[in-house]
Amino acid sequence: MSIPIRIHPLFWALAALIGWLSTFDITLTVVWMAIILVSVLVHEFGHALTAVYFGQSASINLMVFGGVTQRTGGKLKLWQEFIIVLNGPVFGLLLCLGAYTLYSIIGMNYGHLTAYTLYVTAAVNLFWTFVNLLPVQPLDGGRLLRIILEGIFGFKGVRFSTLLSVILCALIGMAFFAKGFMIGGAIFFLLTFENFRAWKAMRVMTEQDQDINLWQQLNAAEAAIKIGDYDHAWVILEKLKSQVNDGVLKNLASQMMSSILFAKEEYDQAYALISPIIKKLTPDFMELAQQIAYKSGHYDQAVEFGNQAYQEGPTYEIALTNAYCFAKKGDVIPAIGWLKRAQNDGAPNFLNILRKNVFDTVRYNPEFQQLQGDGSKN
Hints:
mainly alpha; 3 strands; three-stranded mixed sheet
């Protein structure tokens, strides 16, 4: 089975930068680029070939900060996942040992450049194997620890391994900074932040959230919603919610059911569905949540949703709905503020918007009339 390989242009750029900073020589920079290419490919082939052996399909992507092996196929057992992850560092270590053995045998007999290439290949792969086996995610060492803890403690082990990654990345980053290795420190602090985000997300996850069959049900419901088959989607989502106790899947199912009720203009029922999970709504649902809360008369909550949605991606529709909410409450200043934002964000037919009945509660306020006058001049 073939294993496709894709190389991003920035991979070459970073490899060239590493080579140049290591040698300040054009010829040796090219040598370093070749060494980095071969080393990363050998490492990723360790993952990919093992995955293919276990019946999966694999492809290799070389990107700016290294390589990624993408796999598709049936769910594997944990021990198989462990071997797939482990064989990346194993292949790298074998390349290190092979290069060092050749270097020891031939020495300078084949010229300085050949000896230099073999020595650097051995050193680079020894260093990267050591670093890559550090027990922090997304490095292979962190993934191996995650698999081990999952096998022992189930999903609690996955959460703990991520929390451990947060702590270790922070400590390693501080150690790099203390030694003056600023780039290494910055990289591990970035990993600290990413692992912390992952750990926060996992706090609302359950073991059922890792069930592929349940996710397939959710995807089937989403596909039915896209084609307007709401009744079929509702049946799937009700069945899915009956199978899960809590977690991401249940929250997403509730959000989808709420969107179906909104499409059917059953706004009170839609709000009742999302009301218990307000703190757990996904960012991409916030704009619809704002509409649901507004249509059901929960104006304060609609504004809160609108504020979050506007931070994620400001649009004039979000700004207008917030303006409607404040107008319904008779709060003229924030209503005008959001109207101005809507205008700046490109709201069409702005004067027609100002004539809507929703603004009757604030229409005779001097500041609102001034806004109308400014709009007519434009």
